[in-house]
Amino acid sequence: MSYKILICDDSAAIRQLVKLILTTYEYEVIEADDGLQGLALAKKHQFDLIITDVNMPNMDGLNLVRELRTLPKYQFTPILLMTTDPDSQTKKEAKSAGATGWIIKPFDPDKLIAAVRKVLR
Amino acid sequence: MPVDLAEIREIFFEESVENLNRMESNLLELEKGTVDSELINSIFRGAHSIKGGAGIFNFEEIIAFAHIMETLLDDMRHEKQVITPSVIDLLLRSVDALRMMLLAVKEESDYDVQEVQACQNELKNVLNVPTKKSDEKESLEEESDEKATSESSKSSESSELKEPATSDTSTTGWHIVFKPNLSMLKTGNDPINLFDELKRLGDLEVKVDISQIPTFSDLDVQACHLSWELILRADVKLAALEEIFDWVEDECELHITALEEFSSPQETESPLEKSEEFIIDKCEGAVNQIEQPIPHFKKETNREEISQLKTAPIEHKKKVHHQTEANSIRVSINKIDDLINMVGELVITQSMLEQFGDNFDSSRISQLRDGLSQLERNSRELQESVMRIRMLPISYSFNRFPRLVHDLSLQLSKKVELKLSGEHTELDKTVLEKMSDPLVHLVRNALDHGIETPVQRQAAGKSETGELRLHAFHQGGNIIIQISDDGAGFDLDKIRAKAIQQDLLNPDDHPSEEELYDLIFQPGFTTVEEVSNLSGRGVGMDVVRRNIRALGGTIHVESKQGEGSTFNVRLPLTLAILDGQLVRVGQEIYILSLLSIIESLRVQTKLVNSYGGSAEVYKLRDEYIPILRLYDLFDIIPSTTQLEQGILVIAEGEGQKIGLFVDELLSQQQIVIKSLESNYKKIQGIFGATILGNGSVALILDVAGLIQRFHHIDFQEN
Fold it and tell me: In which domain, by residue range, is B665 found?
């Protein structure tokens, strides 16, 4: 059984790119276009990893992480934030929300896979 | 697995246009004084998304530009930047610049670098970032370079991973003390994963410190009570290690020292050798909750393909993106579901009819009829469902007007309020696309000639702000789009005078109001003394009408001097199908659009007058309607040439009426239009052709064209 990954981003191009890369490595990928939809899907499924954008309408990435961490089934699940601004402030916010780590945009396929492998062995 | 980056490229352009449109309309909203943080957030997200997407394809200039916009918007949403009309205007210009850059990249063409640079400099000025005086191109590159280094410093370090360390950092290995906070596991980080990463770099020795594990009663199973001391024997840079611990650096105590510094000269053996040695697998159980299967990484070729993505996106895009351009349409799931539902019904009806075929006798004829009428209903519904797929809300076209009106009113120093209604009215995608330019033209005209300047308006006792309304609605099988303003209206005397001056009208003529308005649509006609940038050259209204006619639509003007004008554009819902009336002339069958027919009647010969030899008119109530004998026009042998033995179909096109003389009226039915132009050539008076139930071809008549043709013949004969 392959790992199931949720990709949450309001940009269809980014979602499609992440999906393309991850499915090539035989991960199962499900898409959500904002935090609310991501949360609903997370409740419905059991994901092994959640990758989310920070800036999204309806519910942003940080709030999604906070919400997910309140759910027992996602207490220890790796959650990666995609961000273009990897400054210390962003990192601190990400950590205090409960994020596992971050992927810096723009990323190439190798970087994405390296990040995913860092949390999914 | 095919790696289709071209598809992602298409998605990127499509959603970037959507983002730009949203940014634009939100900026206009903002300008109205609606200060709403969600509005600014939404604009910010638009720029952010474009930047992120452009990153996939290394569109450096777009990334750099969007980045500056994003920075400004970020300041705005954090109230570090005051929102002024000039900032909004600059952002609107930036949206345009970004749109231009995107289009250029999409079509692999050039764009106005100077405008982009000017915009970028202004954005930087607002941000108080000193602009560089260097060459434009260079500064764009620098900008993106800066960005690249600042944002991907980590990646550049990680890419150096495999390279041998330079002399100044060369080392035989590293000593690492790693004490996670109790809560580290709760952010989804697993120390084992970190050690696995380290193991990839070289030989790893791991020693676990279990001294902090509390007594069983105090044990929090979700907390990390362990800490580790590690020795990594590998010639790697410190940055590579920091990269591994990047995600947890704030959640642990971490000390990394080069092995040389750590080992005292006397101590030759490994610092861990004295202590009890643990290998990773032994402590795994302590931190790892569930042993998960390792995913397969068998597909070497696929991985190679993927890593090639970043180097060769251009090749992919060139192959595919031209094919997919503008040929797609987004359809809501509901419409598709309807369609599937319809097909289901059709299958049921078909199987019902099939049963009759097996053993049919005359007693079941009424059931057969029921079945056939059900089939007819099904196919009509199916047809409607399919049609709906091509339907798009007119908002796609209306949405560009707030910006247009904003820019034009600034340019003309007029105050205009735009009111849109009926944006959800749907019409065929092709009609929508082809109507876009004529609508823009009508709006420009209304602003330029219709709505007066604030001073003029006040003098006329009106409010300073003019009103421009765009309204769309259904009427019968048509869509009506109204463009109305409360401006000056048309000056009929002026039109008349100009028309006489331009030889379009005889000074002795006394045309009706409607006929005068019709002159507006004549090529080259204008009442404006001075030609402005926007309009007044007299090019346009004739093109507008021609375009609308080409779509099978009509345009009418209603106006009252001093109170305003309304242009009514009537368009068919779709170009593919029309409700037709079949008429017979001799052995030929012609089709008229039901919408163009006013009435059909038996001719009373006493009401027919002929003048000038051949021209005949029919007195219908108070009107005289010219009679066109179709058999004459098409040069065919009719069943009768006696008017009283045939039928006169009174039809209307472009506000004019004509009586078409035919032998007989046949049925009314839905007609699938086949273009004559694309299969043969354009013929005035013929709209297209269709294939009838019996397989024969029938021509569809275009009433407006027939009227023009009729006048032409009339003129020649005289």
Answer: 577-717
Minimum-distance CB partner of A121 among B52, B292, B309:
B292
**Lowest mean per-residue pLDDT among A45-54, A104-113, B584-593, B600-609:** A104-113
CA-to-CA distance for B466 and B562, rounded, in angstroms? 12
Cβ B30 vs Cβ B83: under 8 Å: yes
pLDDT band at B717 (very low <50, low <70, confident <90, very high): low
In this structure, how many other beta carbons lie within 10 angstroms of the beta carbon of residue B479? Answer: 25
A16/B11 touch (CB, cutoff 8 Å), yes or no: yes
Report the CATH number that the domain containing residue A74 is assigned in CATH: 3.40.50.2300
Name the minimum distance, in Å, from the CA of B81 to any CA of chain A: 20
- Judging contacts by C-beta atoms under 8 Å, the chain A residues touching residue B11 are 12-13, 16
**Model confidence pLDDT, tens digit, residues B508-519:** 878 888 888 888
When divided into structural domains, chain A yields a total of 1
Q: Are residues B536 and B627 in the same domain?
A: no
Whether A99 sits inside 8 A of B187 (CB atoms) is: yes
In a domain, B340, yes or no: yes
pLDDT digits (tens, 9 = 90+) for B620-660: 888 889 999 999 888 999 988 888 899 999 998 777 889 99
Cα(B179)–Cα(B186) distance, integer angstroms: 15
Contacts 24+ apart (CB under 8 A), B693-696: B696/B589
Q: Which of B104, B122, B151 is the last residue of a domain?
A: B151
Of A16, A24, A105, nearest to B52 by CB-CB distance is A105
- The CATH number of whichever domain residue B596 belongs to comes to 2.40.50.180
CATH number of the domain where residue B338 is located: 1.10.287
Strand duo B391-393 + B252-258: pairing: unpaired
pLDDT band per the 50, 70, 90 thresholds, residue A65:
very high
β partners of residue B559: B565
pLDDT at B386 over 60: yes
What tokens were used for B457? 């308006």
* Cross-chain residue pair A84–B246, CB shorter than 8 Å: no
Give the end of a domain, one of B119, B151, B183: B151
- Considering only CB atoms, A86 lies closest to which of B154, B305, B306, namely B154
* Residue B343 shares a structural domain with residue B419: no
Among the partner residues B45, B189, B310, nearest to A55 by beta-carbon distance: B45
Per the structure, the complete domain to which residue A56 belongs is given by 4-119
Dihedral sign computed on CA atoms, order B618, B620, B624, B628: negative
Residue B298 lies in a domain: no
CB B255 within 8 A of CB B176: yes
- Across the interface, do A108 and B310 touch by the CB < 8 Å criterion? yes
Q: How far is CA A71 from the centre of its chain?
A: 16
Same domain, yes or no, for B492 and B624? no
Mean pLDDT in residue range B321-347: 72
Q: Quick check: is B293 in a domain? A: no
Nearest CA in chain A to B295: A2
State pLDDT tens for residues A45-59.
999 999 999 989 889
**Cα nearest neighbour of B1 on chain A:** A24
**Cα distance from B10 to chain A (closest Cα, Å)?**
8
Please tell me whether residues B511 and B553 are part of one structural domain.
yes
Same domain, B385 and B398: no
Local structure of B94: helix, strand or coil: helix
Please state the domain count of chain B: 5
Higher pLDDT, B464 or B143: B464
Range in B154-168, B404-418, B428-442 with the lowest mean pLDDT:
B154-168
Residues B358 and B441 placed together within one structural domain of the fold:
no
Residue of B nearest to A82 (CA): B52
B666 and B523, same structural domain?
no
Q: Are residues B208 and B127 in the same domain?
A: no
Q: Is the pLDDT of residue B389 over 70?
A: yes
B197 contacts B175 by C-beta, under 8 angstroms: no
Q: Do the beta carbons of residue A100 and residue A71 sit within 8 Å?
A: no
Q: Check if B200 contacts A (Cβ < 8 Å).
A: no
Q: Which of A79, A100, A110 shows the shortest C-beta gap to B307?
A: A110
Which chain B residues have a beta carbon less than 8 Å from that of A68?
Answer: none
Q: Tens digits of per-residue pLDDT, B144-168?
A: 444 444 444 444 444 333 344 444 4
CATH number of the domain that residue B520 is part of: 3.30.565.10
